[in-house]
Amino acid sequence: MASRDWDALLYVGDMMDMDAISHHALEHNDRRSLEGKRLKKDYENFAKILRRHRKIVGKKCKIYYMLGNHEEWADRMVDMFPGLEGMIEPRYCLPFDELNIEVIDYRKHLKLGKLYFIHGDLQSGSYTPVNVAKKIVEIYNRNVAFGHHHTLQAYTKISPQGIDETHTGYALPCLADTNPKWNRGMPTKWINGFAVYFFDEDTFSLFPVVAAKNSFYAPDGKLYQ
Q: How far apart are the first and last CA of the chain?
């Protein structure tokens, strides 16, 4: 992030696990997994990360924060206990105004050039197939990049109308523990990484970056460890 001046930094959602109020744990009566966790502490810790990132990219860089389904757990709790409204939701508990961060609401998109960014949680059933990049590009019929699924995929939907009507979907890796405790050691397709994006009015290039064993190569070929 400090290697050059950037126009924008985008968080694609689920930046916090919100596991202190996990509805999965509550629904399965798994109170033990909630032991010792505090939402206030989670917000304080992530606020430090946001402030650090703003300092790194500078005041001129536009920052977008896309709310994901994990952040939505706070809203679900407010649905259960309306008296908590305004006290536990990310939009009120993170320093978005202080750091001049634009918040993208749940299941809304951000268009940068010819690429649409979404969080990527399209509910259940046929919306979460093995080839999720294919499914999402077919649903949106646009160039789409998204997180949520914690893996790396790409799929291009061709068109007889030519390249201008051809679209690609990109599933992006995660910056998270790829074997969380609640997964109980089951295999996943999760991988660590992020993406770097360059664009103008006519074209774009998105470079997914995969991190392994605490190192990765940036799109310019530089090795970071």
A: 14
CA separation for the pair 186, 115 (Å, rounded): 34
- Domain ranges for the chain: 1-108, 110-217
Distance CA 51, CA 67 (A): 18
Distance from C-alpha of 38 to C-alpha of 34, rounded to nearest angstrom: 8
CA distance 173 to 209: 8
Entry pTM: 0.92
| Contact of 188 with 182, CB cutoff 8 Å | no
Would you report the helix, strand and coil content of the chain in percent, each value rounded to 5?
A: 30, 25, 45
User: Of the candidates 93, 57, 56, which has an alpha carbon nearest to the alpha carbon of residue 73?
Assistant: 93
Contact 146, 118 (CB under 8 A): yes
Reported as a single tens digit per residue, the pLDDT across 92-105 is: 999 999 999 999 99
